[in-house]
Amino acid sequence: MTLTMSEARLTLQKVYGYDDFREGQTRIIGHLLERKDTVGIMPTGGGKSICYQVPALLQHGLTLVISPLISLMKDQVDALHSLGVRAGYINSTQDASEAGRILYEAERGQLKLLYVAPERLESEWFRERAKQLRISFIAVDEAHCVSHWGHDFRTSYRAIAPFVRELAAHNYGERPLLAAFTATATPEVTEDMIRLLELQEPELIVTGFKRDNLAFTVLRGENRKDFALNYVRQRTNMVGIIYASTRKDVEDLHNMLVKAGIPAGRYHAGLSDDERAQMQEAFLYDDIRVIVATNAFGMGIDKSNVRYVLHYNMPKHMEAYVQEAGRAGRDGEASECVLLFHPQDILTQKFFIEQSEALPERKAHEYKKLQSMIDFCYTPECLVTYMQRYFGEIDQQPCGMCGNCKDEREQVDITLDAQKIFSCIYRMRERWGVSMVASVLKGSRNKKVVQNGFDLLPTHGMMRHLTEKAISDIIYVLIADGYLGLSEGQYPVVRLLPTAADVLKGQQQVFQKVANELKPKVEAAVDETLFEQLRLLRRDIANKANVPPYIVFNDSTLREMTEKRPTTVDAFLKVKGVGEAKVQKFGQPFLDLFRHLEQQEASQDEPSGWYEDEGY
Ligand code: ADP
Ligand code: ZN
């Protein structure tokens, strides 16, 4: 019996409450229903899970999902339970009896989906038990981890292919269907995935990195602290993540926000397990809206209502950037991704590469990737087109909404300041760092300045009307825009680049783009008060059910509720993201609220604080 797309669509509507598949999903699910091995490359938030879950629900037998992220596993299984789907997971957070119970359920055919970490496949015990399960389909999540060229290589992924072979041998040659999914794969990684997972003549579907709801911006030469503070202040009602490269930056930014009265969380590998778990929890449950973190944060965070991801530093490569920025707007609502580039970031990243114990070949590869990341920060073309090309999608149209497509910044002529700075660097013989140049321009008479006779230079004190920090900021703009170069090493030295000569000769003007105010692009909800009310209601339900709020309903579903205000089960089912199981489990309090509002309006009462009064 072959399964059809219309059956799949029916499942999507009944179980998930969505009208139709996205374009890439249709293609992937179509192939899987024909039992063809498939590789799905989809951006974060593109809707990967549905690609394997819907076939899993339609097929006989068990679907094994191999996923490296323990927290994500629990999340996915919670989400499936809330949809009324029988699913379980086995990982290191459980004791043996719990794992045994789940396996027992799977053996008896009581589960449709079983999530396991790849490390399981290395255990003889698990492999033997797995032969007793009727595994008809294996979905490999984060499949790029099998490749050395990928950014998070995991040896245990190499155990997948032998495991599948073993299963097939046990079943007289009948091999489960295999699908591999990832959000970020360059062509070389894709090739590795196919070869190392031993996919058989797979269909390859790349749904594209374009996320219509994300507006990307790269800013160079901003005063980052001021920018970050301003930015978050304008978005206190939104959920956001700020990524910084070092623990120290995380601590500093976190302090700054807290001092400014903004409840913020922090997350990095230097905190205790307890504190990290607590921070993650508070963020997932919307108790804090903004979190400052290193890249240790986010793997496995499936929070759907993140409205902005602000990168305080340039990450080490495009793969990392796309993954981190992609955590914004998973619910499909308009969201922002802003990267603050500073020339110092290049030195930091080079330092990380040099410090690592990787082989020269590997280091060369890392440098190449870093260069692509730097080019991204400098490119004048559409940022999305750049990303698409990097990941192998060519000939794409500009997105029309990124910072480069839509540059609304003000241009300020800084030619005069630039000339003073260049001239000073020249007179200091291009042997000093940014802060020393700034001290001289400020007119400082500190020991070093005097010892070197810089107080006698005609440029000494030429910019005394500015603070040293402001002068440094301008120097960094000039570095970022390619007028000045910064040498490598522990004490980087500023040098003039050929373009600076043209400026000194008065043949070229210098402009700085000023973007200190990046106004929120994200639209406010139709009815903020009602939306807030629904959020509170959702939080109570989530707390009782012991799951994060977005497992109950995500923000876009709540938003649609503020418009549709359903008072019957049928009307409720028409809201996007509401399936049959969810109406049964979580629907009643919402229906009660909307019915109450309707009555109130009918009797012309002012809508009051009903929600708090009734104590939901
Ligand atoms: P990924 O795993 O690719 O990052 P998810 O599977 O978590 O993405 O899906 C991202 C979001 O998109 C989820 O909130 C999901 O419910 C929603 N979604 C997925 N498919 C559809 C669809 N066909 N219609 C509407 N929303 C969808
Ligand atoms: Zn663009």
TrEMBL record:
<keyword id="KW-0378">Hydrolase</keyword>
<dbReference type="InterPro" id="IPR036388">
    <property type="entry name" value="WH-like_DNA-bd_sf"/>
</dbReference>
<dbReference type="InterPro" id="IPR036390">
    <property type="entry name" value="WH_DNA-bd_sf"/>
</dbReference>
<feature type="domain" description="Helicase ATP-binding">
    <location>
        <begin position="29"/>
        <end position="203"/>
    </location>
</feature>
<dbReference type="GO" id="GO:0016787">
    <property type="term" value="F:hydrolase activity"/>
</dbReference>
<dbReference type="InterPro" id="IPR044876">
    <property type="entry name" value="HRDC_dom_sf"/>
</dbReference>
<dbReference type="GO" id="GO:0006310">
    <property type="term" value="P:DNA recombination"/>
</dbReference>
<keyword id="KW-0547">Nucleotide-binding</keyword>
<keyword id="KW-0238">DNA-binding</keyword>
<dbReference type="GO" id="GO:0006260">
    <property type="term" value="P:DNA replication"/>
</dbReference>
<dbReference type="GO" id="GO:0046872">
    <property type="term" value="F:metal ion binding"/>
</dbReference>
<dbReference type="InterPro" id="IPR011545">
    <property type="entry name" value="DEAD/DEAH_box_helicase_dom"/>
</dbReference>
<dbReference type="GO" id="GO:0043590">
    <property type="term" value="C:bacterial nucleoid"/>
</dbReference>
<dbReference type="GO" id="GO:0043138">
    <property type="term" value="F:3'-5' DNA helicase activity"/>
</dbReference>
<dbReference type="InterPro" id="IPR001650">
    <property type="entry name" value="Helicase_C-like"/>
</dbReference>
<dbReference type="GO" id="GO:0005524">
    <property type="term" value="F:ATP binding"/>
</dbReference>
<keyword id="KW-0227">DNA damage</keyword>
<keyword id="KW-0413">Isomerase</keyword>
<dbReference type="Pfam" id="PF00270">
    <property type="entry name" value="DEAD"/>
</dbReference>
<dbReference type="Pfam" id="PF00271">
    <property type="entry name" value="Helicase_C"/>
</dbReference>
<feature type="domain" description="Helicase C-terminal">
    <location>
        <begin position="231"/>
        <end position="374"/>
    </location>
</feature>
<dbReference type="InterPro" id="IPR002121">
    <property type="entry name" value="HRDC_dom"/>
</dbReference>
<dbReference type="Pfam" id="PF16124">
    <property type="entry name" value="RecQ_Zn_bind"/>
</dbReference>
<dbReference type="GO" id="GO:0003677">
    <property type="term" value="F:DNA binding"/>
</dbReference>
<keyword id="KW-0479">Metal-binding</keyword>
<dbReference type="Pfam" id="PF09382">
    <property type="entry name" value="RQC"/>
</dbReference>
<dbReference type="GO" id="GO:0030894">
    <property type="term" value="C:replisome"/>
</dbReference>
<dbReference type="InterPro" id="IPR032284">
    <property type="entry name" value="RecQ_Zn-bd"/>
</dbReference>
<keyword id="KW-0862">Zinc</keyword>
<dbReference type="InterPro" id="IPR018982">
    <property type="entry name" value="RQC_domain"/>
</dbReference>
<dbReference type="GO" id="GO:0006281">
    <property type="term" value="P:DNA repair"/>
</dbReference>
<dbReference type="InterPro" id="IPR004589">
    <property type="entry name" value="DNA_helicase_ATP-dep_RecQ"/>
</dbReference>
<dbReference type="GO" id="GO:0005737">
    <property type="term" value="C:cytoplasm"/>
</dbReference>
<keyword id="KW-0234">DNA repair</keyword>
<dbReference type="InterPro" id="IPR006293">
    <property type="entry name" value="DNA_helicase_ATP-dep_RecQ_bac"/>
</dbReference>
<comment type="similarity">
    <text>Belongs to the helicase family. RecQ subfamily.</text>
</comment>
<keyword id="KW-0347">Helicase</keyword>
<dbReference type="InterPro" id="IPR027417">
    <property type="entry name" value="P-loop_NTPase"/>
</dbReference>
<protein>
    <recommendedName>
        <fullName>DNA helicase RecQ</fullName>
        <ecNumber>5.6.2.4</ecNumber>
    </recommendedName>
</protein>
<dbReference type="InterPro" id="IPR014001">
    <property type="entry name" value="Helicase_ATP-bd"/>
</dbReference>
<dbReference type="Pfam" id="PF00570">
    <property type="entry name" value="HRDC"/>
</dbReference>
<dbReference type="InterPro" id="IPR010997">
    <property type="entry name" value="HRDC-like_sf"/>
</dbReference>
